TrEMBL record:
Its main location: mitochondrion. Pfam families: UbiA. It is a multi-pass membrane protein. It comes from Paracoccidioides lutzii (strain ATCC MYA-826 / Pb01). The chain crosses the membrane at residues 176-199, 224-245, 266-288, 294-312, 319-340, 360-380, 408-426. This is Protoheme IX farnesyltransferase, mitochondrial. Belongs to the UbiA prenyltransferase family. GO terms for molecular function: protoheme IX farnesyltransferase activity. GO terms for biological process: heme A biosynthetic process. GO terms for cellular component: mitochondrial membrane. HAMAP family: CyoE_CtaB. Residues 90-151, 500-529 are annotated as: Disordered. Residues 137-151 have a biased composition (Basic and acidic residues).
Amino acid sequence: MAFPLLMLRTGVALDAAALCSRCFTLLISQPADVSRRGFSTTRVLQNAEYRATILPKVLQQAYLSSCGLPRSSLSQRVVVQRLRKESQHTDRSALFHSVPPSIDTQSSFGTPIEANRKHGSPATSPKELPHRRRQRLKAEQEANSKYEIRPDASTRLSTISSSLPKTSLRRTMATFLALTKPNLSFLVVLTATTAYGLYPIPTLLALDPSVTPLPALSTSTLTFLYLTTGTFLSSASANTLNMLFEPQHDARMTRTRNRPLVRKLLSPKAALLFAALTGTVGIIALYMGTNPTVAALSAFNLFLYAFVYTPLKRISPINTWVGAIVGGIPPLMGWIAATGQTATTGHDTWRDLLFGPDSPGGWLMAAILFAWQFPHFNSLSHTIREEYKNAGYKMLAWMNPARNGRVALRYSILMFPLCAGLWWAGVVDKGFLIGGTLVNCWLAKEAYRFWKFQGAGGSARGLFWASVWHLPLLMVGTLITKKGIWDGVWRRVFGEDEEDIEDEEFEQDEMEEEGNVPADASLPMKPIP
C-alpha cells in the first residue's frame, strides 16, 4: 500500500510511510501554517530561534531516529507544544540548559542554531541592556553600604614620609606634620577664627586705641595671629597624644593603619616630646596674646580630648558626646579672645568673659559646632562600623544602629533654632535666616534619609558629604551676614549720607548735655544718703 505524500506547507513534503502512527496522527491533526508577515522581521527571527532552543531532553537524536521523523522545525514545534501542556510547571531556564551543544537543530528559517550561537545571537547569548546594567550596578552599590573613604592628610603624609630617605629633613617634617592631623587641626582653627571675626567689633582689624585702652599685644591683628598659632599648636598636641595612646588599635582599621606611629616612622618618645612642646608653646601663646581665659580653655580641651575622650572610646558610646564638647570649645575660645579686647579694667575676669552681656553669641557658636558633629561622625562611623567593632571601639554605629540614626537626625534639627539664635543675639542680619535655613534643610533631609534607611541605600554617604559641606557654608554665611557689615553699602544704595548720621549723633549729644536725656539713663540711680 502506497502512502501519499503529505503537503504540510509550501516547500515541505513528508512521506507518510516513514512516520509512526502516533506522529502521523499528530501531524494531520495540526492545520498548516498560515503565511503572515509581521511588522518586525527581527522579532519573528528572535521568536523562531527562541522556540528552537528550548527543546527538552526527549527531542534528541535517539528519539527522532527511532520513529524516523525528519528533524524539521514543524515537527519539533508540534511535539514541543504537547510537552508544554503536559509539564507547564517546568522552568524555562532548565529547558534551555538541557539542550546539548551537539544538537544539529535548525530554526524555522533553516538557520542552524549552533551557528547563531557562535555569531552571538541575542537568543542564545543575551546582552544586558545599558540602562539595565546601570540600574543593577547602582543597586549593588547601594546594597553594600561600605565604600572606600579617601585617606586623610595624616595618611598621605605618612606615605610620603616612608618613601623618603631616613636622614632626610623632609621626611622628619612630614612625619611630625602627620602627627598633628592637619585636616582636623585646620577645622579647629577655622571655627575659632570664625567666632573671633563674628564678635561685634566695629573695625575688626584696626581698633581705635582711644576708644578703649588696650595692652601692647592686644591689637586685633596680633590677637588674631596669636589665636591662630596657639589654637593650632594645642590641637596638634592633643592629636599627637591621641595617636600615642592607641597605635595597636589604629593598626586594626583601614582608616588609621597608615599613621606614623603605626608604621614606626618615629619612636613613641619622640612623639611624646613633640606633644609636650607643641602643647606648652600653644598655651603660652594664647596666654600672652589673648587672655588667660582662652589659654585655660585650650588646656582644658587638650586634657579632655587626650585623657578623657581617647580612653573612653573603648569603654562607652558616651565618648561621642565628649568628643562633641571638645569640638564646641574652639569657637568659644575665639569669641572670648575678641571679648577680651574690649573688656575694661575690672570687668575682664573669666566670669565677665564667659557669662557677660555679649557672651550668648559665643555659646551659640559652640552649640552649633557641638550639634554638627553628630550627623558628621555618626554617618562616618556607620560606613566603617565593622572596623570600629574589630578595633574595640564602643560606637553607636554597631552597638545600636537605630539610635545612631535618631541622634544624627535629632541634632540636625537642632541646628534650626541655634542658627536663629545668632540673629536673636544680634550677631548676624536677617539674611542669615534664609541662607542658614536652606543649608540646614539640606542637612536635615539627609539626616532623615539616614535615620529612615538605617544608613543603607547610600544614605550614610549622602549625610556624610552634606555635613562636610554644611559647616564651611554655615561659617562663611555668618561672616557675610555679620551684623552691621553691610550698613555702609545699604546707606549708599538708598542715598543716606554719612553727614546725616553725624548730625543725628550731634543732636543726641546736645540733648544729653542740656539734661533732656540723661547720659547714663540706662544705669540705676544711686540712692541719696
